[in-house]
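To: structure subgroup
Subject: Chain for Friday's discussion

All,

I'm putting the inputs and outputs inline so they're searchable in the archive.
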Amino acid sequence: MAAATPEVPLGREPELLGQMVVVIGGSAGIGLETARRARAEGASVIITGRNPERLAEAAREIGAQGKAAFDAEDPAALGAFFRDLPAPIDHVMVTAGAPHYGPALEMPAEEARSALTGHLLLALEVARNAKDKVRPLGSLTFMGGTGARRPRVGLAIASTVTLALPALIANLALELAPIRINLIACGFVDTPLSASLLGADLDKRRAELRATLPIQRVVQPADVAALAVHLMSNTALTGATFDIDGGQQLLA
């Protein structure tokens, strides 16, 4: 069953009325919820994903203006997608990619190289391709994490990327100006990706978070989508990292 589209409260104009939002990785999870939220706020949306069938279903569900199936980490495919986009657009949200976990010294060199550079190069390629398509004071929004900020066995690769992304985003904000660029750093979010990573331990993790987080519930994709749409609409925000983890980092 399709999730209900959030309704705009009576008495205010939709925040993205008449704007165009592109969501790279928009066929599920946080990306799909962001596209849904943007539609509720009056935007037209174009979504992308690697799985054509899932992408087509998501596009029908939210009434997307367009869709494109490709691997966002393929520079040639990403470049072709942006070249074919109608110009101008207003916002790009990128949720594609997944964190890499495991002992760094046991990871094959090529896998480690890809894990270290994948997210960073994706951000660079999106920025490079989007700069001539996005309106002034439009925005790019990327996804990072908070969970790998504390050293732990198996998190060397993820921690390095987690710490590098905010620096990249801050510097790109100067190069892209007046286009804005921001980073959302999530803790655990209850998504299909989280389910695939945790497997049989998913319900246990949910229960732990409900019992320990200050908000007493698990962060949902819709929570992150609400923040993403705010970053699109608030033209004073650029070069910053915004944490959303339900207070997870406050815990010992």
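Points worth raising on Friday:
The domain at 20-243 is CATH 3.40.50.720 (Rossmann fold).
Residues 120 and 165 are 7 Å apart (CA to CA).

D.
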